[in-house]
Amino acid sequence: MSEFEAGLSTETERALKAIDLADGRSARAAHPPSSALEELERSVEGGVKLSRVEDVDLTQLAHQVTASQFRIFAAIHACERAGIERGLIFSIVAPVRELAARSPLMRRMQTWPRGYPATSKPSSICAAR
Fold first, then answer.
1. Which DSSP symbol is given to 112?
2. In angstroms, what is the C-alpha Rg of the chain?
């Protein structure tokens, strides 16, 4: 197993533990607000660092970005279960949302107008690429 794969395995286990809570502990006990926020901040920092990576295989980078997204999703979930306000979570993830918005498709997904037909615009963005 490569160092990269080992890192993904470790991160996957951490994400699953954060989401699963199979041992029956309450969400607040399992994810006190301070630790949930710290994990979210670390996850966002990791995602932002990936935007500055150079000289890496694009397939490997795609896997790292995907793993980073799932770490962020798991950290957001932990924050929500710890009772952290949505506005605070939103402000912490703002840097990675800005990075994602560089993509026309992702920008559209973030600013989706209400009541608009769901598939027409994103489909045309994908088809144009």
1. P
2. 17
